[in-house]
Amino acid sequence: MDNLIKAEWFKLKKDRSLWTLIIILLAVSLSYPLLIVFDEGAGVIKVNDFYRNTILEGNNYVIRLVPCILAGFFISSEYSIGTMKSIVASGNSRVRLYMAKLIVYCISSILISLIFPIIFTGAISVFLHFNGMPGIRYFAGTIGLTILYTIAFASMMALFATIFTDSGKAIGFMLIFFIIFDSVLNLLSSVSPVFEIIYNYSVFKLFLDIGNIDIVHGAELIKLVITPIVTFIAFGILGSILFRKKEIK
Questions:
Q1: Domain, as residue range, for 65
Q2: Tens of pLDDT along 212-241?
Q3: In angstroms, rounded to a whole number, what is the distance separating the alpha carbons of residues 150 and 6?
Q4: Per-residue pLDDT tens for 103-146?
Q5: Reported pTM
Q6: How many structural domains does the chain have?
């Protein structure tokens, strides 16, 4: 398993789509603070408010959309160019192959998802002279939840990327799915008690509460933490089963 992960990590480091996405997010993180400061001034904004209302809300889109592009190139494209057929022919267990791919893909998704909370926050803090910094416990809590919900969404994306063996189709489907599915599920929850329960316990609803970790306690906090873990395990198992039975051409 260790060798499989190393092999996937080597391929990931050579993946141009990953570095392109990282560079774009870094550019936004380092340039956007300049626009804010010049437009509103450095003295009227607190870092904590900007972190909660702008960075975390913007990162909600990063978590569920940007890794879709990487999944298309890092996972789906290996089917279309024949790389996956050669990998499967190596004799390794398909479950181990899928899990190695999923682990490395999740790590790359985490790297993407932490650019805004860490780099963006660092840049805006400098420009705002560290005025009104978020508390360390709050900041650490949002980082932890960001990681958990990132791997939950990544496990879904890996499953879809395995179903669609063409990178273009995979990326197109996933972008549309993750843009509209939460709205569809929310609409269904208003007309059906069953869908209401599903929506209330889904990552599509709960990940919006990452920024509210300081006001969530007890059972709600447990739900906020456990749901992405269960989602990751469930979709990881589903993906490995699909990959084990999939005919690879």
A1: 2-245
A2: 999 998 999 999 999 999 999 999 999 999
A3: 21
A4: 999 999 999 999 999 999 999 998 888 888 999 999 999 999 99
A5: 0.93
A6: 1
